[in-house]
Automatic annotation (TrEMBL):
This is TEX30 protein. InterPro entries: AB_hydrolase_fold, KANL3/Tex30_Abhydrolase, NSL3/Tex30. The gene is Tex30. The lineage of its organism: Eukaryota, Metazoa, Chordata, Craniata, Vertebrata. Residues 27-210 form the KANL3/Tex30 alpha/beta hydrolase-like domain. It comes from Sakesphorus luctuosus. It holds the Pfam family Abhydrolase_11.
Length: 221
């Protein structure tokens, strides 16, 4: 289902992947610095989640400024929260690369607001860009260290923007419950020599879904 979400004086293009049965939880998904919501990894994940009963809303926001992308993400969360068509009890924010930075930044922002109402259940970071290539001294970890909700990282063990030891170090300092799934030998774009994109995506999709299920079940015990 295609929708246009009002954002300032323009609109954000978005698409709902709707499961057959009514979903109580949803995932909001966005792309990295390049590409848009039809990036193959996002298409694959959205289709997988919907076929496993999780509503997925993915959107395009072209700005290259994290603050702007964060604002766009907030608009999409509010849109879904107020939606009459899909009454959800909670959502997980997910993004690829820069999209995951925007999601982390938004969760940090909202957690500082007094009206934080637990609508956001968790964060999924696909290829989180912890640092610029070869600039390991400047870590983009300030939002991650302030987040309290569960976080899943899916990163390539050869990601040039997220050195394995550095992410593990940041994770050990995080207050939030967190899990890291390493895609062996994958780079920032999740490409692995000798494996097809579909094969890598199957691994990522299955990890994301099983983590979602664990975290939704924890809620309902």
């Amino acid at each position: 289902v295609k929708v246009k979400i009002p954002f300032g004086n323009k609109y954000l293009d978005a698409i709902f992947s709707v499961p057959e049965k009514k979903s109580t939880y949803g995932v909001i998904l966005t792309h990295g610095a390049g590409g848009d919501m039809n990036f193959p990894h996002l298409l694959s994940l959205a289709a997988y989640l919907a076929s496993h009963g999780v509503l997925c809303l993915r959107f395009t926001c072209k700005g290259l400024n994290v603050a702007y992308r964060t604002k766009a993400f907030k608009t999409v969360v509010e849109y879904l929260k107020l939606s009459d068509d899909y009454k959800l009890s909670g959502v997980f924010l997910a993004g690829r690369s820069m999209g995951s930075r925007a999601a982390a930044s938004l969760i940090h922002q909202l957690s500082q607001d007094d009206d934080d109402d637990d609508f956001i259940q968790g964060l999924i970071c696909l290829s989180y860009p912890l640092h610029r290539p070869k600039l390991q001294s400047k870590l983009r970890d300030e939002d991650l260290l302030c987040i309290r909700c569960p976080v899943l990282f899916v990163s390539g063990s050869a990601d040039e923007m997220c050195e394995k030891k550095l992410l593990e170090g940041v994770a050990s300092k995080m207050k939030a419950p967190k899990k890291i799934h390493w895609i062996d030998k994958a780079n920032h774009g999740m490409a692995v020599k000798g494996r097809t994109t579909d094969d890598v995506m199957e691994e990522i999709n299955a990890q994301v879904f099983s983590w979602l299920r664990e975290n939704v079940e924890l809620e309902h015990r």
